Amino acid sequence: MKNSSLETYSLKAAIKDALTEWSTAKNFFDQVTEPDLVDYAVLRLEAAEKRVAFLLKKAREEGEPP
């Protein structure tokens, strides 16, 4: 069953939000200098990457362009 246009929009919006979060996490990782924050920066970046990958996979499975 095909998704409604609202569900498609929501998936596209989620992908856009995930890419924004990934970009923010990448910038934070690139700028962090406090040793106590390095682990946090790595985990945040990895989580953002996994979210983007999941949403892109879901879009491909549903036949929707990202």
Question: What can you tell me about this protein's structure?
Answer:
Helix 1 packs antiparallel against helix 2 (35-61). The chain is 82% helix and 0% strand. The chain has helices spanning 5-31, 35-61. With 66 residues, the protein is mainly alpha-helical. It has a domain at 22-61.
**pLDDT < 50 stretches:** none
Oligomeric state, counting identical vs distinct chains:
single chain
- Compute the separation of the termini in Å: 19 Å
Instruction: Provide the structure class.
Output: mainly alpha
The overall strand count is 0
Order of helices and strands: HH
Average pLDDT confidence is: 88
Our count of helices gives 2
Helix content: over 70%
Largest sheet: none
What would you call the shape?
elongated
List the topology elements.
Blueprint: H1 5-31, H2 35-61
Helix pairs in contact: 1-2
What's a quick, concise take on this entry?
This protein is an all-alpha fold and 66 residues long. The chain has helices spanning 5-31, 35-61. Helix 1 (5-31) packs antiparallel against helix 2.
